[in-house]
TrEMBL record:
Residues 55-291 form the ABC transporter domain. It is found in: Cell membrane. It comes from Azospirillum melinis. This is ATP-binding cassette domain-containing protein. The chain holds residues 306 to 605 of 605 of the full protein. It comes from the Bacteria.
Length: 300
């Protein structure tokens, strides 16, 4: 078998890693030390085509390489049907983001399996797997490049008209056109700095262009102003439409709109149901919801 980093799509590896590393020293550290550990199979299994977008975690146990005595996921099982919208909720450290990391195959579990459309992700080409997964991170990375390039990263062969259409669907067209050189304006560290809501809409445009069957959404915790919030939410609703979506949820509206809420604690699923069902149960979710959603949304 072949070591993935350095051999397969170096740029996508780096950008994926940057996305993960953004803003988290802990993760930056792990990027430097362990990211090249996964191996691509010598004869990868093709993922079924067309993609359905079914996800399946079966009795997964996983510990991070730096913490061999401590499992981030333990007995984690979850099936997500094509097109289903599942909200992951749980206390900090429950393992929600770790679920994304295993799907994206930044790491492999020590026991159990992670399947995408029925294929164990360890048996597939990691590039194929990641092509089917669209990640919208909490604080998306803006590359040091112009807006065309920033969005086109989602699909390098897209025409200008397609890039603009994606920006429009993501409510990013107006603010991008208003930049000094429009879409040709240099963004990122040494260019025009975007607001949090603008960065999110840029990332949504990227994902719309890419059109993946599965969306992994890490919902922002930081508050945006009401207008920006409304536009981000509307853009996300369009993006999620017709796709399997796994959301690390922080907002009441998100859990209310989910087909199913999956409550995690200490690396496993402890409750599952709708908002109403889970509140009525009076368990962990009910306690979290009372703490988390009251203030954030001014409702419930
Ligand atoms: P939060 O809501 O705070 O983001 P979470 O439910 O997403 O939490 P994870 O980020 O999945 O939780 O983390 C699960 C556990 O694994 C935590 O205890 C965390 O400290 C640990 N962890 C996460 N990333 C790493 C890493 N790269 N190396 C070592 N431990 C890690």
């Amino acid at each position: 078998s072949v070591v993935v980093a350095g051999s397969v799509g170096a740029i996508s590896e780096v950008i994926g890693d940057l996305q993960r590393a953004a803003g988290a020293t802990e993760r930056l550290f792990s990027l430097l030390s362990v990211e090249s550990e996964i191996r691509a199979p010598a004869a990868p299994k093709p993922l079924p085509s067309p993609a359905a977008g079914a996800l399946s975690f079966d009795n997964v146990r996983f510990h991070y390489p730096s913490r061999p005595d401590w499992a981030a996921l333990e007995g984690f099982s979850l099936d997500v049907r094509p097109g289903e919208r599942v909200a992951l909720v749980g206390p900090s450290g429950a393992g929600k983001s770790t679920v994304f990391q295993l799907l994206l195959r930044y790491y492999d579990p020590q026991a159990g399996s992670v399947r995408l459309d029925g294929v164990d992700v360890r048996d597939a080409d990691p590039v194929d797997v990641r092509r089917r997964l669209g990640l919208v991170a909490q604080d998306p990375v803006v590359f040091s490049a112009n807006a065309w390039e920033n969005i086109r990263y989602g699909r390098p062969d897209a025409s200008d008209a397609e890039v603009r259409a994606a920006a429009e669907a993501a409510h990013a067209l107006d603010f991008l056109d208003a930049l000094p050189e429009g879409f040709g304006t240099f963004l990122g560290e040494k260019g025009v700095r975007l607001s949090g809501g603008q960065r999110q809409r840029l990332a949504i445009a990227r994902a719309i262009l890419r059109d993946p069957p599965v969306l992994l959404l890490d919902e922002a915790t930081s508050a945006l102003d009401a207008e920006s919030e409304r536009m981000v939410q509307d853009a996300l609703d369009r993006l999620m439409h017709g796709r399997t979506t796994l959301i690390v949820a922080h907002r009441l509206a998100t859990v209310l709109n989910a087909d199913r809420i999956v409550v995690m604690d200490k690396g496993r699923v402890v409750e599952t149901g709708t908002h109403g069902e889970l509140v009525a149960q009076g368990g962990l979710y009910a306690r979290l919801a009372a703490l988390q959603f009251d203030r954030a949304d001014g409702v419930a």
